[in-house]
Amino acid sequence: MRVFVGRRVRPGSSLENKTRAWRGKHPVYKQKDCIGCQRCFLGCPEGTVYQLDKKKFDVNLDYCKGCGICAHECPVDDIEMVLEVGCEEP
Questions:
Q1: How far apart are alpha carbons 89 and 67 in whole angstroms?
Q2: Percent of the chain's residues with pLDDT above 70
Q3: pLDDT (mean) for 1-24
Q4: Where are the domains of the chain?
Q5: % pLDDT > 90, the chain
Q6: By the 8 A CB rule, do 57 and 29 touch?
Q7: Angle, CA 15 vertex, CA 20 and CA 50 arms, to 5°
Q8: Could you tell me which CATH number the domain at 3-83 has?
Q9: Tens-digit pLDDT profile for residues 54-67
C-alpha cells in the first residue's frame, strides 16, 4: 500500500523489524461478520493486514505494532484487540 503525504512512502518500519516482543495488544479477526470493505487493510499503517479471500482478512502478528487502527476502522466490530500474555490493561 502506498500513501501520498507530500511524497511516496512505503509501509512503516514494521515490515523490516519484528515488533511482536514489545506489543501490548494484538488484533483478533473473528471472521464472522466481515463485509469485505477493506477498511482494516487500507487503514493499517504498517501494511501487515492481508486478505485471505473476499470477506476474510488476517494480520501478520510478527510485524503488527498493535495500534488498533484496524479494529477502530471495522464498521461491524469484527476485529477485537486482545491483551498479549503477561500484559495488563493500563
A1: 14
A2: 77
A3: 57
A4: 3-83
A5: 54
A6: yes
A7: 90
A8: 3.30.70.20
A9: 889 999 998 899 99
Judge whether 30 and 45 are in contact, CB under 8 Å: no
- Per-residue cell: 53: 479471500
The grid coordinates of residue 88 equal 495488563
Cβ atoms of 24 and 83 closer than 8 Å: yes
Three-class secondary structure of residue 40 per DSSP: helix
pLDDT in tens, 29-53: 998 999 999 999 999 998 999 999 8
For cell 485471505, what's the residue? 52
Q: What is the dihedral of CA 40, 44, 49, 54, to 10 degrees?
A: 30
Cβ neighbours of residue 86 closer than 8 Å, sequence gap 6 or more:
none
Q: Which three cell numbers stand for residue 66?
A: 498493535
What are 33's three cell numbers?
A: 461478520
User: Is-above-0.70 flag for pTM?
Assistant: yes
Rounded to 10 degrees, what is the CA torsion of 54, 19, 6, 9? -60
